[in-house]
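Objective 1b. Sequence-to-structure analysis of Kelch-like protein.
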Amino acid sequence: MAKTKILFLIALFVSCKIGTGKNLFDPNSPASLGLLLLGSEPVVTMEFSTNRVQPGGVMYVSTNHDFTTKTEGLKLPISGISDSPISKIIPRSKYLYEIRMKPSVTTGRFRINLKDYYLNESLQVNPESFEFEIDSEPPILELRTGNGIDISELESGFLDIVANEDIVWDGNLSQVGLSGTAKNTLVVSDVITSERNIRLLFAGNPNSNGGILTISFADIKDKASNSQGTLMLPINVYAFKSGPNLNVARRSCVGVELDDGRRLVLGGRAKKDVMINGNGTLSHAEFYDSVSKKFVQGPDMVYRRQEFDAVKLLDGRIFVSAGLGGKIGPSNDALTSTEVFDPISNTWTEGPQLADPRLFHKMTVLPNGDVLVVGGLSPYKPIQSVGSVELVHITNNPATMTVEPIGNLSDSRGKHTQILSHEAGKVIIFGGERSDVFGPLTNDFTPNALETIEIYDINTKTLSKSTAKLYKRFNHFVHRLKNGEILIFGGVNSRFDNAQPVLRAQIYNPITDTIRDHKNLLFGREWGSSFIFPYGKDQLIVAGGLEYRTVNGSTFDSIHDTESWSESNNRFYMTSRSLNARWDGCDIRYNSVGGGMILGGRIGDILGNTEEYSFE
């Protein structure tokens, strides 16, 4: 008898046209009939309309099982809690049920345990469980690159907007609007949507000065039907715009933003025939007033300085060291002096003397507040690079600050870069120019670009040489990445007639002491304004500098075009143009709001003009 039953079932399955899809779950299908004849109950399927629902909202479940014949109807037991968010289940037909939520439950994730419940009734259930969330918050939109973009990203034709959750939206042009100071003739020409991304395509032109672009989205909902109605997304559009003129045109200066928001430019070299304190090397300082958009004179430094360095201390004071210059008088000397600017009293106070004079050196503020002074070039002829490293112990009173000799680099160098690695507890010193003197005359020296990397250990106060090698370069840039690695790019590999730009970037890992090649710059540049700053989430922009254009390096030109590097895109790409193709200027980075200012420099003659890169 059993054998006959099996043969009958085989014949039944072969004779019936059972397609793919839902036939198995249809209670009247031959497959379910076959399961019934085999002594099994049909599989009960449930399909929920959403996994997110508002407080007091509704979701639906469709099924192949008629629960209206049961006394208790459809039951949906919630695992792990006594108070279910479900207030009522209403049958809309034999196979469709409305599930209403309690308005009092405003948040939470819940799991409906279907398997255990229906096992009591000897039913197979698909799925065995279902999770849903009570969601009272409307979706949030943001620019994929953060809250700021370069103006070139609008000119390129599209922006990507991302949502924090799946959205339900028609994406009609009538549902998108543009306003704000950056709009100009810009319009949205098309919209491409996916579950969590909106790509806006543009036509027309934004305001060349940048500004705020506000994008409005109407009727965007999430899967729980939450909506803000009209959602406004303001975006900071950065662009280069003309800034006020300096009171004194200068090159080889230093700029810094103070903790109180004031922006300060220091020292440098004045235009030809301009003499202040008896010399063209400046002690002159100026503040940029961002309200009046003018430069006002600040207190002079104690010393006239050019090719010096300045850092902001942990307490907000400014520490300045060395360079070429002096006090009042016509001569320029090699400086060992230091001084400190107190932004509260607006005064400069002389600090301790370094052991060695130096210019084109670098300083780094250490975690304990002390300042590491590394390398440089001596200003004496013939020019010789400096190998000594000194540590300045910072105190509240500059008169009590002291200088500790640390030792000598394996390769003396100036025009290098250095950066603090908090993860490794080290200052990493990259490349630079070493000048070897071979005779007594002015030009009796040989300049060499370095491939070496040296390391200062903060804890042991020792210097060591890395086994990793750079492409030889000086006057280059470094930037710390989010993962603690260091991006090195730009610079040149030599001086005089054989100078060539270094296009290849590299990434150094300070934990493993290894280096790897990265992408190429679009422009080889050195002597730039060192104008690199982050905006949005992960972006840098590089402006200004010189590019050598011939094989022997004898022809060069300053650069108008800027380029950006994105940590998420991991590449260099063209962005906007600066207003002036300048080099050997200085910059002030607006750490508080992003962007910054390029000041002075030269295009043939020394410049007094400035330009801001901002959205303000």
